[in-house]
């Protein structure tokens, strides 16, 4: 099967997101796990549901992201089962890393 190339999407976490009030009161930041959930969802869309995430061998958070800031996600297939991602706020990389995937067989698709 031909591997997808890349995807770019805008990530936006509203101030009303449930994770925002507790992270941190008076100085809200988007938790890394919220950003990573959006990376996972984008990777699943890139493969049209034919792959699942099995690991993130490297992830770096380089700068804080606040609610209501629009982040550009760039997700690129680098090897058969590996993706690279970058999250950018303007010209600044705020997060980057790798995503390991496993292609699903028709048997796996029925059980997910």
Helix content: 10-25%
**Radius of gyration from the CA trace?**
15 Å
Secondary structure category: alpha+beta
| Biggest sheet strand line-up | 1-3-4-5-2
Summarize the biggest pleated sheet: 5 strands, antiparallel
Inertia-based shape = elongated
Provide the descriptors you would attach to this structure in a database record.
112 residues, alpha+beta, five-stranded antiparallel beta sheet, 19% helix, elongated
Q: Can you walk through the features of this model?
A:
- By secondary structure, this protein is an alpha+beta fold.
- The protein is 19% helix and 43% strand.
- It is built from 2 helices and 5 strands.
- It has helices at residues 32-46, 106-111, and strands spanning 6-12, 51-61, 70-79, 82-89, 92-103.
- It has a 5-stranded antiparallel sheet with strand order 1-3-4-5-2, covered by helices on one side.
- It is elongated and about 45 Å long.
- The model has no long low-confidence stretch (mean pLDDT 90).
Helix and strand topology:
Blueprint lengths: L5 E7 L19 H15 L4 E11 L8 E10 L2 E8 L2 E12 L2 H6 L1
Antiparallel strand pairs: 1-3, 2-5, 3-4, 4-5
Brief characterization of the structure:
19% of the residues lie in helices and 43% in strands. The chain has 112 residues and is of the alpha+beta class.
